[in-house]
Design a protein that fits this description.
The structure holds two protein chains of two kinds. In chain A, strands 11-10-9-12-8-1-6-7-13 form a nine-stranded mixed sheet, sandwiched between helices. In chain A, strands 2-5 form a two-stranded antiparallel sheet. Chain A has helices at residues 37-51, 68-78, 94-108, 127-135, 188-196, 235-245, and strands spanning 2-6, 9-11, 18-19, 26-27, 33-35, 57-64, 82-87, 112-116, 138-149, 152-159, 162-169, 172-176, 199-202, 215-221, 230-232. In chain A, 28% of the residues lie in helices and 33% in strands. In chain A, strand 6 (57-64), helix 2 (68-78) and strand 7 form a beta-alpha-beta unit. In chain A, helix 3 crosses helix 4 (127-135). Chain A has one domain (2-244): HUPs (Rossmann fold, 3-Layer(aba) Sandwich), CATH 3.40.50. By secondary structure, chain A is α/β, with parallel strands linked by helices. Chain B is α/β, with parallel strands linked by helices. Helices cover 27% and strands 29% of the residues of chain B. In chain B, helix 3 (70-80) crosses helix 4 (93-105). The chains are: A alpha/beta, B alpha/beta. The complex binds flavin-adenine dinucleotide and adenosine monophosphate (AMP). Flavin-adenine dinucleotide sits between chains B (201-203, 228-231, 242-247, 259-261, 263, 265-266, 269, 280-282, 285, 298-300) and A (13, 37, 120).
Chain lengths: 249, 310
C-alpha cells in the first residue's frame, strides 16, 4: 500500500508572529520555518504503518515556494521514501492545495493519504476534507488511533464529548490529531540519507490545476490586547476581587 | 438569497453551537434556514423551528444520517445548496468535518472560524493561533463558512415560528461506517457554553490530583472543567477537555487557570474570557500576562483554600 503524506511549511510553532505595520499581513521574513506539527504526526504515522508492514511506500508532497524542499527533506529524514514538490510562488488556499493533491493522487494511486488536521498558520482545517470530497473518498478526521484491517482503516477520531471509532473503506483520507503519536527525531544518519532520496518538482500547470485564490485578504490586524492585570497577595484577596471588583462570583 | 445553517444535533435536540451559528446567519441578512440531517430527528427539527430568526427547517430523516457521517451530511447539504448564498456550520469537530467537504463539492472556498461578519462577502477570522485577525473577502457565488461560537451570542431557543419541510434523505455513501463511541457523560455545563471554567494543567501532576484538587472548586462554582494539552496528553483527563488553538475555544465570564503555564496555543483558546484568574507558583509564567488576577502560590495549598472559603 502506497501512502501519500502532504506536508506544509509553516512558521515554527514557537514563533509569535507580528502583524506588519501596513496591515497587509504578518511579518514572516527571517522567522524560523518548520514542518507543520500535525504533518510531522502524519509522516510519523505513515512510517509506523510501514514498519508494521501495512504500508510499502511513503511519498511526501509539499506545495509552495522552493524552500518547501527543506520540509520534504525533513519528511524523508523521518522516513518518507521520496518527495514531490509542487512549486509555485502564488498564495495557495486550501481548495487549490486539495486540487493539486488530487492530481498527484490520480498519478500515484495511493491507498491512503494522511494529512494534518490543521496548518498552524492559516488554521483552516480544510484541506483533507476537501481532498476527500474531490476524490469521492471516505474521511476520518482528527484521528487519535489508526488500524489498517484489510481493505479498511479503523480510525478513532476525537469528537466533542470524547472519541468515536469509524471504519473507512480504502482508499481513504485520514487527518491527524495531536495524540495520534509522538513524532521521532530525525537522526543525523537519516538526515544524510534523506539528502539522497528522490525529489521531483512539478508546477501547478503540469498538473492542469488553476490555483487562483478565491479569497482576498483585505487587512490583517492585531487582536485587541488584554489590559494588564494585577497580582493578588493571597486567596482572601482573590475572593474579594472576584466578588466585589469583577463581580463574577 | 437565503442562508443555510447545518445543524449539529443529537437527533432529539440541537447542540448549543447551532444557536450561535443561527445568530451569525442572521447577522449576514436574508432568510435563515436550518438543515437537520438525522435519523428519527423530528424533535431536533422542531426545536430548530422554534429558534428565533429561523424561517424554515429542512428535515432529511433517514438511515444514512443515523451516525451523522460527514460524507452523508455533506451530500445532503449539496443536494439543497442551489437555493442558498451562504452555508454555515459550527466550528466544532462535526462542522469542521462536514463544511470543507461541502465547499469542495461546490467548488467554493471555505472561510473557517469566522468571528465577525463585515458584509455578505467579507468576514473576520483569527489566524496564527489568534495572534492576528484577518479580514477576508470571498469572490465565490456561495460562501461556505464555519462559525466560532464564542464570537456570536446564542440565538434564543424560542420565539421563532419556522416551518419544517421534509426533504428526501440521500442514500448512504457506503465509504464509511460507524463502529463505536466512547462519550464522556458529565453533569457539568458544556465547556463551550459554560459561564465559569476551572482549567488545570501539567502542574496538577496526575489525573487523581486533577480531580481531587479541582473538583471541589468546580462544584462550588458550578463550573465546567477544562485542561491544557499537556494535561490531556498525560492522560489526566479526556481529549475533549482541551482548551486551545487545537482544542476548544472558550470565552466564559470567569476562567481560572491552575497550574497552566500559558503557552500561546493555550491562550488562543481562552484569552477572550471576560475575567481570567491564574494560579501558578512561577511568578514569570506567561499566563500572568493575560490574567486579570494572578495568584503566585502552590496550587495544592491555594486551590483547596479557595474552594473552602467560597
Ligand atoms: C501544534 C500544537 C498545538 C497545540 N495546541 C494546544 C492547545 O490547543 N491547547 C493547549 O493547552 N496546548 C496546546 N499545545 C501545547 C502547548 O504548546 C503547551 O505545551 C501546553 O499548553 C503546556 O501545558 P501546561 O501549561 O499544562 O504545562 P506546562 O507548560 O508544563 O506548565 C505547567 C505549569 O504548572 C506550574 N506548576 C507546577 N507545579 C505547580 C504547583 N504546585 N502550584 C502551582 N503551579 C504549578 C508551573 O509553574 C508551570 O507554569 C500545542 C502545541 C503544539 C505544538
Ligand atoms: N501547501 C501545502 N502543501 C502540502 N500540504 C498541505 C499544504 N497546505 C495544507 N496541506 C495539508 O493539509 C493539512 C491541513 O491544512 P489546512 O487545511 O490549511 O489547515 C496540512 O496539515 C497538510 O497536511
Amino acid at each position: 500500500m502506497k501512502v501519500l503524506v502532504p506536508v506544509k511549511r509553516v512558521v515554527d510553532y514557537n514563533v509569535k508572529v507580528r502583524v506588519k505595520a501596513d496591515n497587509s499581513g504578518v511579518d514572516i521574513a527571517n522567522v524560523k520555518m518548520s514542518m507543520n506539527p500535525f504533518c510531522e504526526i502524519a509522516v510519523e504515522e505513515a512510517v509506523r504503518l510501514k514498519e508494521k508492514g501495512a504500508a510499502t511506500e511513503i511519498i511526501a508532497v509539499s506545495a509552495g515556494v522552493a524552500q518547501c524542499q527543506e520540509t520534504l527533506r525533513n519528511a524523508m529524514a523521518i522516513g518518507a521514501d521520496r518527495g514531490i514538490l509542487i512549486e509555485t510562488d502564488v498564495e495557495l488556499q486550501p481548495l487549490a492545495v486539495a486540487k493539486l493533491l488530487k492530481a498527484v493522487v490520480d498519478r500515484e494511486q495511493p491507498q491512503l493519504v494522511i494529512l494534518g488536521k490543521q496548518a498552524i498558520d492559516d488554521d483552516a482545517n480544510q484541506t483533507g476534507q476537501m481532498l476527500a470530497a474531490l476524490l469521492g473518498w471516505g474521511q476520518a478526521t482528527f484521528a487519535s488511533k489508526v488500524e489498517i484491517e484489510g481493505n479498511t482503516a479503523k480510525v478513532t477520531c476525537e469528537v466533542d464529548g470524547g472519541l468515536e471509532t469509524i471504519s473507512v473503506k480504502l482508499p481513504a483520507i485520514i487527518t491527524t490529531d495531536l495524540r495520534l503519536n509522538e513524532p521521532r527525531y530525525a537522526t543525523l544518519p537519516n538526515i544524510m540519507k534523506a539528502k539522497k532520496k528522490q525529489l521531483d518538482t512539478l508546477k501547478p500547470a503540469d498538473l492542469g490545476v488553476d490555483v487562483t485564490p478565491r479569497l482576498t485578504t483585505l487587512k490583517v490586524e492585531e487582536p485587541p490586547k488584554r489590559k494588564g492585570g494585577v497580582k493578588v497577595a493571597d486567596v482572601a484577596a482573590l475572593i474579594d476581587k472576584l466578588k466585589n471588583e469583577a463581580k463574577v462570583i | 438569497m437565503a442562508n443555510l445553517v447545518i445543524a449539529e444535533h443529537d437527533h432529539g435536540s440541537l447542540k448549543a453551537a447551532t444557536l450561535n451559528v443561527i445568530s451569525a446567519a442572521s447577522v449576514i441578512g436574508g432568510e435563515v434556514h436550518v438543515l437537520v440531517a438525522g435519523h428519527n430527528a423530528k424533535a431536533a427539527a422542531e426545536a430548530a423551528s422554534q429558534v428565533a430568526g429561523v424561517a424554515k427547517v429542512l428535515l432529511a430523516d433517514g438511515d444514512a444520517h443515523a451516525h451523522r457521517l460527514p460524507e452523508n451530511t455533506a451530500a445532503q447539504v449539496v443536494a439543497a445548496a442551489s437555493a442558498y448564498s451562504h452555508i454555515l456550520a459550527p466550528a466544532t469537530p462535526y462542522g469542521k468535518a462536514v463544511a470543507p467537504r461541502v465547499a469542495a463539492l461546490l467548488d467554493k472556498a471555505q472561510i473557517s472560524d469566522i468571528i465577525k461578519v463585515i458584509d455578505a462577502d467579507t468576514f473576520m477570522r483569527p489566524i496564527y493561533a489568534g495572534n492576528a485577525y484577518a479580514t477576508v473577502k470571498s469572490s465565490d457565488s456561495v460562501k461556505v463558512l464555519t462559525v466560532r461560537g464564542t464570537a456570536f451570542a446564542a440565538a434564543a431557543k424560542t420565539g421563532g415560528s419556522g416551518v419544517v419541510e421534509n426533504v428526501s434523505p440521500i442514500a448512504d455513501s457506503g465509504v464509511s461506517t460507524f463502529v463505536s463511541a466512547e462519550l464522556v457523560k458529565s453533569e457539568r455545563p458544556e465547556l463551550a457554553a459554560a459561564k465559569i471554567i476551572v482549567s488545570g494543567g501539567r502542574g496538577l501532576g496526575s489525573g487523581e490530583k486533577y480531580r481531587e484538587v479541582l473538583t471541589p472548586l468546580a462544584d462550588k462554582l458550578g463550573a465546567a472543567m477544562g485542561a491544557s494539552r499537556a494535561a490531556v496528553d498525560a492522560g489526566y483527563v479526556p481529549n475533549d477537555y482541551q482548551v486551545g488553538q487545537t482544542g476548544k475555544i472558550v470565552a466564559p465570564d470567569l476562567y481560572i487557570a491552575i497550574g497552566v503555564s500559558g503557552a500561546i496555543q493555550h491562550l488562543a483558546g481562552m484569552k477572550d474570557s471576560k475575567v481570567i484568574v491564574a494560579i501558578n507558583k512561577d511568578p514569570d509564567a506567561p499566563i500572568f500576562s493575560v490574567a486579570d488576577y494572578g495568584l503566585v502560590a502552590d496550587l495544592f495549598e491555594a486551590v483547596p483554600e479557595l474552594a473552602s472559603k467560597l
